[in-house]
Amino acid sequence: MVNPRRLTAQPHGEIRRVFDDIFMVRGRFRMTGGPPIAFSRNMVIIRHDTSLTLVNSVQLSEAGLERLAELGKVDNVIRLAGFHGADDRFYKERFGATIYAVAGQVYARGFGQNVSAKDQYFSADVEIDETSKLPVPGAMLETISSARPPEGLLLLEREGGILIAGDALQNWATTDPYFNLLGKLMMRAMGFIKPFAIGPGWLKTAKPDPRDLRNILDLPFEHVLPAHGDSVIGGARGHWRKAIDALQLR
Ligand SMILES: [Fe+2]
Fold first, then answer.
1. Rounded to the nearest whole angstrom, what is the distance from the C-alpha of residue 168 to the centroid of ligand 1?
2. Ligand 1 midpoint to CA 39 (Å)
3. Which of 34, 84, 150, 175 matches a 20 to 30 Å C-alpha distance to 111?
4. pLDDT of residue 117
5. Domain positions in the chain
């Protein structure tokens, strides 16, 4: 999903408030370089005073950027998913945002695996791991370092624990209007459309050690804000326990 420059934003919805100072917006991602599959993805916006941190960035339209400016100033972008990041450079160029990416993630064409230096089109300003100071107060990074490329989750210590996920935890219970027909058919056929899931494509491709996923259940969280699908407010850890327990330990 990591992709060089796009000229225009893809369709997206309204920015909506999820918790105090936490907002989400859903938009379309159309794959390039293969079948023209389109599906949805979410960006999370965290506000601290007048400063905004974008997680799982989605390039917004000019109207969307105006709405974003009403919330605050885009200072930071945190990349969690090894297979995302295509729009991070937009926020660097447009707002001078500081880009944080999990150590070992690269910005290159394709899915960020087996990348040579010439394929890389951008670099993060700050590489982060579980010990890093993050731009969001009360936030902690959990890494799945066995995944290739590595993946992160961001835990916010508020509201009983809010876990923001990239591809690791997904909740596409149904498709939505940001899928195209081919996206609906193919994503259903490939088993992506189910609630409280470990991202099936990510699991297959990034091959994380299941023990790293079990560690997620030790985190104190009640809610999940995923990059794919609906947010889960309340009881989220219990909902994912079944999927994680079902993974075969190597
Ligand atoms: Fe994804």
1. 9
2. 9
3. 175
4. 73
5. 16-245
Q: Are 205 and 111 in contact (CB under 8 A)?
A: yes
Cα 165 to averaged position of ligand 1 atoms, centre (Å): 10
* Residue 227 structure tokens: 């990059």
Q: How far is the CA of 167 from the centre of ligand 1 (A)?
A: 5
Ligand 1 centroid distance, CA of 149 (Å):
13
| Distance, CA of 230 to CA of 72 (rounded, Å) | 24
User: What is the Cα–Cα distance from 124 to 76, expressed in whole angstroms?
Assistant: 11
Work out the angle at residue 95's Cα, subtended by the Cα atoms of residues 1 and 12, and round it to the nearest 5 degrees. 50
pTM attached to this predicted model: 0.95
Q: What pLDDT, on the 0 to 100 scale, is given for residue 105?
A: 96
Pairing of strands 162-165, 151-156: antiparallel
Q: How far is the CA of 58 from the centre of ligand 1 (A)?
A: 12
Mean pLDDT by 10 residues, the chain (250 residues): 65 98 97 90 98 98 98 98 96 98 91 75 97 97 97 98 98 98 96 96 95 96 98 97 82
188 phi, psi to nearest 5 deg: -65, -45
> Ligand 1 centroid vs 82 CA: distance in angstroms?
9
**Residue 228 CA to ligand 1 centre (angstroms):** 7
Superfamily of domain 16-245: Ribonuclease Z/Hydroxyacylglutathione hydrolase-like (3.60.15.10)
Distance (angstroms) between ligand 1 centre and the Cα of 78 equals: 15
